[in-house]
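Tokens in:
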């Protein structure tokens, strides 16, 4: 039972709460926790979200196309990088018959 509670809190509830407060996608929070926890063990797991937020804020200030694309990835890791309105959704939007 403690394992199930820990997994539920650690993998579902905490990432959603942290994502809302820190403007990070929940998947980004989970990946950051996994990465920094692997690199620095317990201290990396504790500092994973602050480190990721600092990197995100640092990338926001850099005026470079690669930095902007990585910054967008922190907010929406599963998107293709463009807005939904600009992408054609049917053959009518492409001007095809």
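Residues out:
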């Amino acid at each position: 039972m403690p394992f199930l509670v820990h997994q539920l809190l650690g993998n579902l509830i905490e990432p959603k709460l942290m994502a809302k407060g820190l403007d990070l996608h929940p998947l980004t929070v989970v990946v950051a926790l996994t990465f920094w926890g692997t690199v620095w063990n317990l201290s990396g797991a504790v500092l994973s979200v602050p480190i990721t937020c600092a990197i995100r804020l640092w990338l926001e200030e850099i005026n470079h196309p690669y930095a902007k694309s990585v910054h967008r990835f922190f907010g929406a890791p599963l998107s293709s990088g463009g807005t939904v309105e600009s992408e054609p959704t049917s053959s009518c939007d492409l001007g095809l018959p």
